[in-house]
Amino acid sequence: MHLSSFRFLHEIGSVCLFGILIRWMVSINPYSGKGKPPMFGDFEAQRHWMEVTYNLPVSEWYHNTSRNNLTYWGLDYPPLTAYHSWICGFTASLLNSSWIALPESQGIETPEHKLFMRVTAIIADILIYIPAICALVYQRRTFYGGFPYIIKICQEIAVALLAPAQILIDHGHFQYNCVSLGLIAWAVFAINRRQDVLSAVLFSLALNYKHMSLYLALPFFFYLLGRCREAGLKDGLKKFTAIGAAVVATFALCWLPFIWDRKDASQVLLRLFPFSRGIFEDKVANVWCALNVVVKLQRWNVGLLATVSGVLTLTGSLISGFDLLRNPNDQKFKYALVNGGLVFFLLSFQVHEKGILLAALPATLLLTDEPKACTWFLTACTFSMFPLLLKDGLAIPTFALVAFFSDP
Question: Residue 57's pLDDT band (boundaries 50, 70, 90)?
């Protein structure tokens, strides 16, 4: 290995270790639902999914049974999340089976178990999200071997890895958004390399891990369709067929245990799209929550609200989508991702506070191009979740991370 290559890897590794250290420092703070029975919070939800998937057959994962009470954090994420939960549950069974002893372990809050859960989130970040961010920054800048250039790349990676929103939710509040966000980032990386089929597979995996990735589906669809159109009729049709086949095959593999029984498949879909919960949850910083101050939307017909929000969301997304179809440009694609994520967050049905992460990811990828605008936007994304973070006891790490991230 050349000295310049070794120095480059050393510098990049140091930056990544610093990003991991910041995540670990946030993880020593409280988490969602700590000491708040009977339901606790998202930390308990993720743990409960581990014990459900490990202890019960696949056929019961999404069904209400005597051993699986769906009113207590029933599984409501796509199959890839369930498989991830099974892996974590299997690992937990090797270390301490009491952590996933269904139902005796409900609400468990031992220091050892908290350490285990925090480590699983860090590992997911290390394996998927952090490498994707490094790859995208490196991809944007061709490496010539000069030390100043290495410093510039490391600076950009450091800023991207220190964006507060994802750190606070995954390592403070506690979730595994780094998996779906990382897969989306890898899909963008593949698109930049003109690996359209691979990009479609990676984004399909993100959708099958967290269905909120649908926020970014339209930009991917129109961009890839635009690529097919540019290739001409014959080659474009081949490309379109290859992409379509890859997407269908990916979904089929992810849903394999559920597609054989129509009831199982429909039950999973019902769990993923619970329209009965209303148009928004908690204090989410979107149009419907703001409008609800004046007009009590929760009293309105759910079907009507779903239709109105759907029409408005599509209208807001299709403008940039059609532009991508006409001229599929890499830079336009990233801006369209920001637009798509933000439009869905502001206008779509059943929005959570964490949905802003889907707009924050492409903004993170644009930090080098629009440093001031993206820094302010990512700061605003973080504070849009402040009621949730405050409830979790994460006010201090929130202000500390935002100050650190925004410091010129």
Answer: very high
Cis omega (within 30 of 0) for bond into 57: no
Q: What is the pTM of this model?
A: 0.95
Within 10 angstroms of residue 248's Cβ, the number of other Cβ atoms is 11
State the angle between helix axes of 217-230 and 302-326 in degrees (0 to 180), rounded to the nearest 10. Answer: 30
Residue 260: is it exposed, middle or buried by C-beta count within 10 angstroms (0-12/13-18/19+)? exposed
The residues facing 65 across adjacent strands are: 68
Nearest to 83 by CA among 259, 265, 208: 208
Dump the DSSP string for 7-19: HHHHHHHHHHHHH
- Scanning the structure block, which residue is given the tokens 């490391």? 154
Three-state secondary structure call for residue 102: coil
Measured at the CA of 297, the angle between CA 321 and CA 273, to 5 degrees, comes to 55
Q: Residue 91 — φ and ψ, nearest 5°?
A: -60, -40
The pLDDT of 166-189, averaged and rounded, is 97
Question: What does the pLDDT look like over 353-363, one tens digit per residue?
Answer: 999 999 999 99
